[in-house]
Amino acid sequence: MSSIKGACNDPSRDNPPRRRVRGEFSVLGIRHLVSVTDPEIEEYYLAQHNGDYIVGEAVLCISLVEPWNGYAFRVIASVITPNRFTT
Questions:
Q1: How far apart are CA 3 and CA 48, in angstroms?
Q2: How far is Cα 64 from Cα 76, in angstroms, rounded to an integer?
Q3: What is the pLDDT of residues 18-61, one digit of tens each?
Q4: 3-state DSSP call for residue 39?
Q5: Cα–Cα distance between 75 and 52 in angstroms, integer?
Q6: Pairing relation of β-strands 3-10 and 18-27?
Q7: Which member of 28, 42, 48, 68 has the lowest number of beta carbons within 10 Å of its beta carbon?
Q8: What is the CA radius of gyration of the chain?
Q9: What pTM was estimated for this model as a whole?
Q10: Taking Cα atoms as reference points, which of 76, 12, 19, 29 lies closest to residue 50?
Q11: The pLDDT of residue 14 is above 60
């Protein structure tokens, strides 16, 4: 994963706006910006200032959530970095 869009305000969805954490990464040259639902990652970045944060090497668990209003959405359910990985 290239970066976390640390807690940005998302006025398009909620009223009043709610801060969200998003992950940005590329696959085959296609850029993806996906909501992060990993509880530890969300908690950490919501406590930071709005901004972009470099994550570096990470394995992502991408999940499909239940359809909502006829749409299916992807989320980053878990961000596994070398410092979070234990054997």
A1: 14
A2: 9
A3: 788 999 888 899 989 999 999 999 999 889 888 888 888 888 99
A4: helix
A5: 18
A6: antiparallel
A7: 28
A8: 13
A9: 0.77
A10: 19
A11: no
